[in-house]
């Protein structure tokens, strides 16, 4: 099986060979109508080469982005199901309805997260946020089932802030984009 990097390298080499062949044809015809035809062909092939070169980073990141997309989608879906289950447990276990104040926003947040887009620039942040979501959901389950103290609600809120921060679209990619 050929890796994505090898495919990209092969395509890039093909574009370079085409550009080299066109350049050689231009040099053969130093003037006249044939020169204009070959020169136009050289410009066309070179512009395709430049456009392809611009897409290389995105093409290289695509397999990781797809993996992140699967992780993010199924993490959020799974945690939405856990949130719905916790809400059902409030009624099944005859708990206080006040737990719904904590569990309904958790469910709505996880349900909304199911529909987020995973792009090439922020896929690692989204994947990290989706994994951190599991910790937050575990805290929510343990708190609502009274396994741990209600004081851990503060930790869950901090966790939700962290997850939301890593899952939101960032308009300022200056420092972050330079780091990668």
Automatic annotation (TrEMBL):
Keywords: Membrane, Transmembrane, Transmembrane helix. The keyword Transmembrane applies. This is Uncharacterized protein. It comes from Streptomyces agglomeratus. The chain crosses the membrane at residues 74-92, 98-115, 127-145, 151-170.
């Amino acid at each position: 099986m050929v890796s994505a990097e090898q495919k990209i390298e092969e395509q890039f080499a093909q574009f370079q060979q085409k550009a080299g062949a066109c350049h050689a044809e231009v040099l053969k015809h130093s003037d006249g109508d044939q020169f204009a035809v070959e020169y136009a062909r050289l410009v066309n092939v070179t512009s395709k080469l430049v456009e392809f070169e611009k897409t290389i980073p995105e093409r290289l990141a695509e397999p990781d982005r797809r993996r992140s997309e699967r992780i993010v989608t199924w993490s959020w879906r799974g945690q939405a199901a856990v949130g719905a289950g916790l809400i059902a447990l409030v009624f099944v276990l005859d708990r206080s309805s006040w737990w719904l104040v904590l569990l309904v926003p958790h469910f709505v947040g996880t349900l909304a997260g199911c529909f987020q887009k995973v792009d090439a620039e922020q896929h690692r942040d989204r994947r990290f946020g989706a994994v951190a979501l599991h910790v937050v959901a575990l805290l929510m389950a343990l708190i609502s089932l009274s396994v741990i103290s209600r004081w851990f609600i503060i930790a869950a809120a901090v966790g939700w802030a962290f997850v939301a921060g890593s899952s939101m679209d960032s308009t300022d990619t200056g420092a972050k984009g330079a780091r990668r």
